[in-house]
């Protein structure tokens, strides 16, 4: 009997994508082997953290990198580094930031339906929202700049209606001496995004390790142009013990501990990721989406079904991964989602802008056949229109 059976936990079919609440992504055997190799050893964790970051930076040809315990932890550390600038007295005070540069500028469109804005508050950042439902202008960003602003955080939700493009945000912020942090947690693929935002001049860029990269779900990556801020992220992190006013202290990142197994797992996953033919992966996903559409239409010709790629204001990331969108009354969307979850095995589909969505990101061919069969059976029993 396997561990899930002993726990009474069911395996599911994931047609939503690399969601944290569904376990992230599948992990390659080479990643498991890296974890097994280091599990029987002791290492200096600071050395491992530094050397693994340097290795990742060389692999991607970027100035600096730091492996973290997830993208959320990466964003918290990035904001904390901008607030404190590596000053240990300030680091010791977090999250109490009165008297510091603690304002963090975020564009209004990036706050709509985005729960991750909360991470800015964890280290003591004070959210400063700019723009309006009508959009964001250059003057909105310029007028927000002051000696109180620690950073601009840009949530990468492209294509996003009404946002000021990142390239212009970076120019304006840097003109005022303010760093720009990009949250690109789920923005892979395309693989070019790994270095795109660094090449644009962002100071720090945060990615999830447990999504398309295929590392354990509790891993992440900060890439850096600004090495001073990156070093501050490390000092704020889980392995620092620093004497502050005669007493040894740990900092806000202590609660974001990452194991030696997770660090090497991320490295192994990243090594695999940069070698993969990502164009071929996307071609296969597109073929899978077309196949699902043709199968559903062949038995349910009245069904309004289409492929969804690069949809504006998309919250189910990444946008380049093709999804099958089925237009249905809202009550039917929710009914079908619930009925699919009740089956054996449970099948998880998502709701996108009120429509039923099937993501091809995490589906195997066999699982695809099961999704089609179960969905057709449910639709025959509970007609969509």
Written account of the structure:
There is one protein chain. With 385 residues, the chain is an alpha/beta fold. 41% of the residues lie in helices and 17% in strands. The protein has helices at residues 3-7, 29-39, 45-60, 71-84, 88-93, 108-111, 138-144, 166-175, 193-200, 227-236, 260-275, 278-299, 330-342, 365-381, and strands at residues 13-14, 64-68, 103-107, 126-130, 149-155, 180-183, 204-208, 220-224, 242-244, 247-249, 304-308, 323-327, 347-348, 350-352, 355-359. Helix 2 packs antiparallel against helix 11, helix 3 (45-60) runs parallel beside helix 11 and helix 4 crosses helix 10. Strand 6 (180-183), helix 9 (193-200) and strand 7 (204-208) form a beta-alpha-beta unit. It has 2 domains: 23-275, Type I PLP-dependent aspartate aminotransferase-like (Major domain) (Aspartate Aminotransferase, domain 2, 3-Layer(aba) Sandwich); 277-381, Aspartate Aminotransferase, domain 1. It is built from 14 helices and 15 strands. The strands form 4 sheets. A 7-stranded mixed sheet has the order 2-8-7-6-5-3-4, with helices on both faces. A 4-stranded antiparallel sheet has the order 11-12-15-14. Strands 1-13 form a two-stranded parallel sheet.
Short description:
By secondary structure, the protein is an alpha/beta fold. It has 14 helices and 15 strands. The mean pLDDT is 95.
N-to-C span: 44 Å
**Helix/strand order, N-terminal first:** HEHHEHHEHEHEHEHEEHEEHHEEHEEEH
User: What's the architecture of the largest domain in CATH terms?
Assistant: 3-Layer(aba) Sandwich
User: Given the helix and strand composition, which structural class is it?
Assistant: alpha/beta
């Amino acid at each position: 009997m396997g561990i899930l059976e002993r726990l009474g936990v069911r395996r599911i079919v994931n047609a939503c994508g690399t969601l944290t609440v569904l376990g992230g992504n599948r992990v390659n055997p080479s990643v498991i082997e890296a974890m097994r190799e280091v599990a029987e050893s002791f290492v200096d964790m600071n050395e491992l953290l530094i050397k693994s970051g340097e290795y990742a930076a060389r692999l991607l040809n970027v100035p600096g990198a730091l492996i973290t315990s997830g993208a959320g932890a990466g964003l918290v550390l990035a904001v904390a580094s901008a607030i404190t600038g590596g000053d240990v007295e300030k680091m010791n005070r977090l999250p109490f930031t009165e008297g510091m540069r603690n304002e963090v500028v975020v564009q209004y469109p990036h706050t709509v339906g985005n729960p991750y804005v909360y991470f800015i508050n964890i280290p003591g950042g004070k959210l400063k929202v700019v723009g309006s439902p009508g959009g964001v202008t250059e003057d909105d960003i310029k007028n927000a700049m002051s000696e109180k602003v620690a950073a601009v955080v840009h949530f990468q939700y492209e294509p996003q209606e009404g946002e000021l493009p990142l390239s212009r945000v970076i120019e304006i912020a840097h003109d005022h001496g303010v760093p720009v942090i990009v949250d690109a947690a789920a923005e892979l693929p395309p693989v070019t995004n790994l270095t795109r935002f660094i090449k644009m001049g962002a100071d720090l860029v945060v990615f999830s390790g447990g999504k398309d990269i295929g590392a354990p779900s509790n891993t992440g990556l900060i890439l850096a142009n600004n090495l001073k801020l990156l070093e501050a992220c490390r000092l704020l992190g889980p392995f620092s013990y620093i004497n502050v006013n005669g007493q040894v202290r740990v900092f806000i990142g202590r609660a974001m501990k990452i194991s030696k197994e997770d660090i090497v797992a991320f490295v192994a996953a990243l090594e695999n990721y940069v070698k993969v033919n990502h164009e071929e992966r996307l071609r296969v996903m597109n073929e899978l989406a077309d196949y699902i559409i043709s199968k559903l239409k062949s038995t349910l010709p009245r069904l309004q079904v289409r492929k969804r790629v690069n949809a504006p204001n998309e919250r189910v990331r990444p946008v380049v991964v093709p999804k099958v969108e089925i237009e249905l009354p809202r009550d039917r969307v929710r009914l079908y989602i619930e009925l699919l979850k009740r089956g054996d095995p449970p099948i998880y589909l998502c709701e996108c802008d009120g429509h039923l969505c099937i993501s091809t990101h995490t589906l195997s061919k066999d699982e695809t056949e099961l999704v089609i069969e179960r969905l057709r059976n449910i639709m025959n029993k509970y007609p969509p229109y």
